[in-house]
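Figure caption, in words: inputs first, then the predicted bound structure.
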Amino acid sequence: MTKRALITGITGQDGSYLAELLLAKGYEVHGLIRRASTFNTGRIDHLFVDPHEANARLFLHYGDLSDGARLVTLMAQIDPDEVYNLAAQSHVRVSFDEPEHTADTTGTGTVRLLEAVRLSGVRTRYYQASSSELYGSTPPPQSETTPFHPRSPYAAAKLYSYWITKNYREAYGLFAVNGILFNHESPRRGETFVTRKITRAVARIKAGIQSELYLGNLDAVRDWGYAPEYVLGMWQMLQADEPDDYVLATGTGYTIRDFLDVSFGHVGLDWNEFVRFDERYLRPSEVDALIGDPSKARERLGWEPTVDGAALARIMVDADVSALEAGTAHWVDSPQSAPWAEALR
Ligand code: NAP
Ligand code: F7E
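Bound structure (F7E present):
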């Protein structure tokens, strides 16, 4: 029997890698996509197969986490074996500018999706994209038993999602899990997150088309891993015998300065010559240090990350340099414009 999965946030970094993984495992994959005036499918264009073809296994559906009725309809239509809720307003700094919108999508959106599971009566397993931002100001190392202290509207919204997921597990017996994922990055990372902002700038400075890079706090510590390894962990959580919550992290912390050292150093440049400070990138309340303890995922799921922050920086710089040279700077491996135009309304 072919398994069916529904991914919200399929057009995002993680959604695109998860779709690849599930298709490779033989799943039929359904993705929720927001209608926009321009196409937002750049990260999944390379997976396109015309849905009229018999071998098509990836299908997109318009919907939004703010539209509960649509979620119920889709859930009943698709009848998925697994649901991955990756959709969110995921930018921490932006959540201070748009706290209400962030609460609506990153927080309330989760209960709308859980209600869609419950009301449609589908028998499915549910993955919730929880975050190391939940720990906020609680010092590292952070594990599944570390107390939470969120420091942003984003983290507060994710805290609600974490607990409502647990509640649906306890109240309704749903196979629902929280993946508490520490920062994970890739060449497909959004350009305004600090790692990608840096590696893109390295490529552009090396090519002579950018001369300065404006950043905020360089002292924060993050535990950066490689996104394709983290989506494997998501899938592993849904294959376990019992639903539970797991931390995914590398266990190694780097400062932004460390990431700058490796990234600029990789192409023979000194970041001190190019990086400038701009206070607009500071957060009203910062998360100083996140370093995860992934022992539980290693022991119970066999999940093992192999790429640490330094290796990641080199992967991302190499990808941004090649993409710039090839003239495909945006999504690296999918230069064509959206082929979905023929397949979507
Ligand atoms: P991302 O690249 O920002 O992708 C977010 C996805 O959510 C996009 O597909 C976006 O669609 C979609 N989305 C946003 N608002 C929506 C709405 N109202 N209705 C439906 N879809 C909506 O995020 P990511 O890095 O892949 O992260 C995936 C998930 O893991 C997020 O929930 C994030 O908060 C969480 N997380 C990420 C990390 C990390 O380090 N990457 C760590 C822990 C947790 P558009 O393409 O149309 O914008
Ligand atoms: O910031 C500092 C900034 O925006 C990392 C999301 O995926 O991971 C991500 O959240 C650090 C912070 O990621 C700039 O102050 C300095 O200390 O790349 P970021 P994040 O806030 O850690 C968690 C786990 C998630 O769940 C989120 O969805 O870098 N920083 N200068 C900067 N950050 C940005 N964005 N831009 C700067 O110019």
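The mean pLDDT is 95.
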